[in-house]
Amino acid sequence: MNIPFILEKALSLYARKEAIVSEGERFSYGEFGKRVYRLANFLGSIGLEKGDCVAILHQNSHQFLEAYFSTAQVGAIINPLNIRLSPRELAFILKDSGAMTLIASRRFTNSVKSLGDLGIKLRQVIWTGEGDEIGVFKAVDYEEAIKEQGPEPASISGISDDDVAHLYYTSGTTGKPKGVILTHKNVCTHALATIAELGLNDTDSWIHVAPLFHLADAWATFAITWVGARHITVPDFDPTVVLETIQNERVTITNMIPTMLNMLVNTPRVNSYDFSSLKVMLSGGAPIAPDLVRKIIRTFECDYIQTYGMTETSPYLTLSILKESLIHLSPEEQFIYKAKTGRPMIGVLLKVVKDNGEEVSHDNKEVGEIIVKGDIVTQGYWGRPEETVEAIKDGWLYTGDLAVVDGEGYVNIVDRKKDMIVTGGENVYSTEVENVLYSHPAILEAAVIGVPDSKWGEAVKAVVVLREGKEAAEEEIIKYCKDHIAHYKAPKSVDLISELPKTGSGKICKKGLRERYIPSFQKMG
User: Fold this and answer.
1) Fold designation for 3-173
2) b or e along 61-83 (b: 16 or more beta carbons within 10 Å of the residue's beta carbon)?
3) Of 214, 278, 286, 390, which one is least surrounded by beta carbons within 10 A?
4) What local confidence, expressed as pLDDT, does residue 417 receive?
5) Fold of 237-416
């Protein structure tokens, strides 16, 4: 089964149904399908062949959704680019992927121009939006290009399940970014699994808030289309715009990064919006504090599901959906499970293992590394055979995430391996400390890292952002932590700053903090 099948299925049942709402434009599935096929035919007309790579530098939009399906239609590989990367970082990815065609919004004209200055050679740039041409590369306007093409799908030949469909580059927390390979099988298997797990159907409306260049949201492109549900896109994360759109478009389901959800629930007058259409709110892409989960449930008054996954796994591995045996529990007991990382998703085999390979006890105490296998797991890293072998052993992907497992089989992540702090011979998991900090009434955002210390080896350091109008001193925050967790886990120091560094997807960037606080960035993964 391949990605073009998903669109064909949607067109066979939902051609007249509204498919896309994007910055004032609305398209039925029939109209969307014609645009996809026109773009695919244009890509074929400029010589794009099976296995060629097409990069896209774009905000969330209908063009991004069209590109995901058009590239698959001709057997090409799509390489979504993080819009917050510098031109030099973008140049590295383009060289590594071998992409010669770029779809770009004119918002990013300066970045594209700089690519030329950095020696990047592109066969074709396809511009969306309004603006002047930069004259560096051969270019064409997106709408002009597709209107000259026929709206019928070109014949597809030779696309197999194991062909590469997507190439996502990791954020490079421990070095140069790596291209994660996802095949048609990976994408389609994941889409079907999420449809089954989340009960997605043609009455749903999904808002694309997290960036489409990141799998926290991109997976929904395929699952939502498969069931004939509705896509709503917002180009940028603006809390007020997002809340208004959820209300006005009667959104039923979405997934956001915890930092986004934190901003939404702390938006002034958030309780004045109508969220009655929402069935469920998902969080994913990073750990989330239980205190924030409570605020999400209270604010949106809908079901909540925590998700966990990786780019390497398409992405979901676990969901905090309650098993039938847990539904009889009291709301507070149910919340304990809803706020956990979750239980394995359909099609995923998951173990938590010690260094010797043995599984940890299911006692919610013994810590081990999560390893997984299944048809959602990547074949490996683009052009990096050694790193592929290091990550995937005997068919199991080693995630680098440390977790415990309870008696019901629910996993709870305690830290990334590289983020664990060893202080005075004791292991401190940064997530546990951050969860306490998020429960402090004056703290909006928090991150915990280990910094070199002559006495303890590493010392626990907290970096926090306070809520607007709130005050809290370093000593008071440290005492608050000591009142809630063991003293050795509490921060030895706390820095109050105005904003935490973020990755392009909106996650808190601990690499950026380490670069700021650790001389010569000694804490490399």
Assistant:
1) Rossmann fold (3.40.50)
2) bbbbbbbbbbbbbbbbbbbbbbb
3) 390
4) 87
5) Rossmann fold (3.40.50)
